[in-house]
Amino acid sequence: MLDRIVTFFKSLPSGENGKEHFSRNDPRLAAAALLFHVMDADGERDKVERKRVSQLISEAYGLKGEALKRLLDDGEQADQEAVDLYSFTSIIKRNLDEEARIRFIELMWDVVFADGSAHELEDNVVWRVAELIGVSTRDRVTMKQKAALRAKQAVQEE
């Protein structure tokens, strides 16, 4: 699965302009903001969810230290300032093909299940994002089932 995640993030074009912050049009920022949004949807910020978002972004882009912190901080701030999901989903839809958009929904489910369960509000956020980026109900549910199975297996291995 990690290979799919790395491939997904590497497929995103870099919109970073060398400045102190990531550009609002950078797909990596949009992805990070949406991952923060789904993480916070249930009103509980679990450390394991935050760690999972950080881990996914770090591994995919090879970001560490200040660069990773900057993308996480910028993504979180962008999510907090957003009035809707469209500003992020339009960037994702514009920059990713269908397969990559489906993989993104899978990543969202991985964040949802990082704490061991899916809250109905998290489910709703993933559904809305999937609709906005053109991922079918069937693909969304399939990705949910895969992520739930991986989460269950991870718990059993511990």
Automatic annotation (TrEMBL):
Pfam families: TerB (PF05099). CDD domains: terB_like_2. Residues 28-144 form the Co-chaperone DjlA N-terminal domain. This is Co-chaperone DjlA N-terminal domain-containing protein. It comes from Phyllobacterium sophorae.
